[in-house]
Amino acid sequence: MIEGLFVGLLLALLTLLYLYLYRTYTFWTRRGVKQITPIPFFGSFLPVFLGLKNHGEVYHEIYYKYPDSDAVGYYQFLSPKLMIRNPALVKRVLISDFSSFRDNEIYTNTKVDPLMELNPFLCRGDTWKPARSTFVAGLTASKLKSYLPLMKDTLTHLDDFLASNLDKELEAKDFSNSFFMTLVSNTAYGVDANCFTDPNAAFRKMVELLSKTNWQKFHNVIIIFFLQSLKTWLGYSFAPKPMQDFGAKVMREVTETRVKTGTRRNDYIQCYLDRNNTVEEKVFELSNHAISFFIGGMETSSITASNAVYELALHQDYQDRLYQELKEAYAKTPDMDYDTLLGLPYLNQIFEETGRKNHVLYSLPKVCTKYSTFVIDGNEVDLFPGQLVMIPSVEIQMDAKYYPDPDVFDPERFNEENKSGRPEVTYMPFGEGPRICAGMQFGILQVKIFLCHLVYHYRILPTSRSAAKPSYSKHSYFVIPNHNQFVKLVRRNH
To answer: How far apart are CA 228 and CA 444, in angstroms?
Structure first.
């Protein structure tokens, strides 16, 4: 009797589970959208969960499963998600219908991430716009021009480091890290640091927290970035608590010292210290921005810069052309001012092709915030608030339809003629639309300062261990090369 009841109950539960999974995993087919066959409970993410693939490899398979479709449905564990493939629909999500897709999928809980409350990428609803406005107040063109001398000061540390390492095999990501750690600490934190010479520098330890501890271990990455509800329930923080504590400590010390002494400095935090609010309000605001700046301004710029250095080492002809452009620019403007630096066309082509081929983020994950209807492969598909959509930015930028021979590094893709011949929204390393990366101009400026100085003063050479075919980490949300980017630098004779 009891055994019969138990078997009956078990069968009932299994039936309910089957019906639940069936309904969950037929979400897209019931709407007439082509979908990827899911694995129960994991959807398309079992290889990621097992550490066999990074999520970019999974997106690649989804993108090319139905190469002629406007969009493809798939499942992020138990959540239905729509990959938007058609650039016209991408434009709707990011630009023309922005009000219907204004939230990013990734968000944070202010209880466990109190110093991410003002992060313009993580904010949702009505809070993102004022948070973004506050963040970019210190990143206007006039402000960036005033930061330029501080940024250039970092170049002396770079030269000192390279002076004792010329003709030696160097890892591009390693010395790029040191450069941008030093620059960001100097410009954004108001702290003089030299991360080239001090292996125990606090900012170096912050980078290790960002890239080598639990925050980047792949199961934590999966929970933080792909299982939002579980992340909130478990109390996972987007930024490691030691990093938040360090940022708050530094900002308090800098704020209190400057307020007490009346010291002024042309850096990012000065414009916030000039606001008419209390010391505690200044500390809170600056602590928020400092953590955001470090995560978004240091690591992403370092990845981009090291990728550019590596590509230039492998393509000496492009490096020579860039060097000639720089020689002419330095002859006219020896101090390489702001307008000259940002107006160099071939440097910009190198930068943009690096952002196309060597990515920082695999995708732009969005959330539908208002009912919207898309025509997908001839069918009208309703999207409702809360529905997850994803822009596969990497795949679009590596699609041969828009960029022939996409694995080839070719700066000529970004001359004016070639750019004008491509569909809109097929290049988006910083995102696009109203929520385009808030620190984009700062990031572009600091990477160009680095590349400009490096190529003008040094020839970048490959070594016997330079790998022509890249591979990428399977355990990071960022697109981090899995191979060492070995190069050798030789001083130029002008």
So the answer is: 31
pLDDT digits (tens, 9 = 90+) for 187-241: 887 777 788 887 666 666 666 666 554 444 555 667 666 666 766 666 667 777 7
The per-residue pLDDT for range 230-250, each reduced to its tens digit, is 666 666 677 777 777 877 888
Question: How many angstroms separate the CA atoms of 221 and 49, rounded?
Answer: 10
**Burial of 422 (C-beta count, 10 Å sphere; 0-12/13-18/19+):** middle
Q: At residue 346, what is the residue type?
A: Y
Residue 91 amino acid letter: K
Dist. CA 154–CA 149, nearest whole Å: 9
Q: How many CB atoms lie within 10 A of CB 449?
A: 21
Length, in residues, of the chain = 494
Q: Of 453, 462, 490, whose CA–CA distance to 313 is shortest?
A: 462
> Looking at beta carbons, which pairs linking 120-124 to residues 24 or more positions away fall under 8 Å?
120/292, 120/435, 120/438, 121/292, 121/296, 121/435, 121/437, 121/438, 122/238
d(CA 252, CA 434): 32
Biggest CA pair distance of the chain? 95
> What secondary structure letter does DSSP report for 238?
S
Record the tokens describing residue 117, joined without a space: 């409350």
Closest CA to 203 of 293, 337, 116, 68: 293
Amino acid at 223: I
Please report which confidence band the pLDDT of residue 83 belongs to, taking 50, 70 and 90 as the band edges.
Answer: very high
**CA gyration radius, the chain:** 24
CA distances from 338 to 156, 430, 445 (A): 18, 21, 8
- In 304-428, DSSP assigns E strands to 364-367, 372-376, 379-383, 388-391
Report yes or no: 366 and 389 within 8 Å, Cβ to Cβ.
Answer: yes
DSSP character for 95? Answer: I
At 86-116, the pLDDT tens digits run: 999 999 999 999 999 999 988 777 777 777 7
Q: In what order do the strands lie in the sheet with 458-462?
A: 169-171, 486-491, 458-462
Residue with tokens 């060492």, as numbered in its chain: 484
Q: Are 361 and 367 within 8 A, CB to CB? A: no
- Phi, psi for residue 381 in degrees, rounded to 5: -125, 125
320: left (phi over 0), alpha (psi -120 to 50) or beta: alpha
- CA 152 from centroid of its chain's CA atoms: 24
What are 43's strand-pairing partners? Answer: 39, 76
* Tokens representing residue 337 in the block: 């001012």
For residue 431, the cross-strand partners are 429
Q: What is the C-alpha to C-alpha distance for residues 414 and 394, in angstroms, rounded to an integer?
A: 17
Tell me the C-alpha distance between 107 and 109, whole Å: 7
Distance CA 270, CA 258 (A): 9
Element (H, E) at 486: strand 486-491
